[in-house]
Amino acid sequence: MTVTEIASVDGVISPTTEATITLPDDGLYRGDGVFEVIRLYEGHPFALREHLDRLERSAAAIELPVDRPAVERELDALLEAFGRGDAQLRIVLTRGGRRILLIENMPAMASTVRLATVTYQPTVILTGVKSLSYAANMQATRIAQARGADEALLVRADGVVLEAPTSTIFWVSPEGGLRTPSLGAGILESITRSQIVRALHVEEGEFDIGDLLGTHEAFLASTVREVQPIASIDGRQLETPGPRTREAADAFQRSLKETVAPL
User: Is the pTM value of this prediction over 0.90?
Assistant: First the structure.
């Protein structure tokens, strides 16, 4: 369903196509800022507190001041103007001091996803920071698509599995358990990941790509994707959706009912 896309810039609400920001702003010039994307279910945000907490942690890591009360006031007003509907909410804080909140249409999402591995080295300074500097992530996706996949799977130069550019990855071990990269490997602290890890027994660690390529079942998880089965990795076909994927999807839906609530 198409929604009316609206924006709030420093508290001024308008259609997104009419919103403007004042330049210069290093958020645009240098990608110096932070952001969050939150899914709206009938106008109610998913894990809002967790997302705002992570926004503050990201901002603190790059010494970016955050006026959280102002963000929350402007968010209240924007959600009231939007009303009820399924959409995604984007919050952007820039070095120029702009607070940008946008309600956007959900991107089209296939029932499964094909991955291609792309070598990637995390930037230690920005590890765990959801910054506006996403050019490397987006280029990784384009590299994967040029290889016939839908999305990239980021793998460190030493062969350790990381994540997809905008989601985390889980797979089934030879013993039948779930595995996912640990935060210490250099991945973002995904909120959907944490919901699944809390609900199910998941082994976290630094796993070699060979471990993942030996699996028969895997899935991606993110705010926008929720739980999405992986159909193939580097052309190797996987079971979709497998039983552990269905279990994770059910666990996420249960958590969703507990987490999504009116402001």
Answer: yes
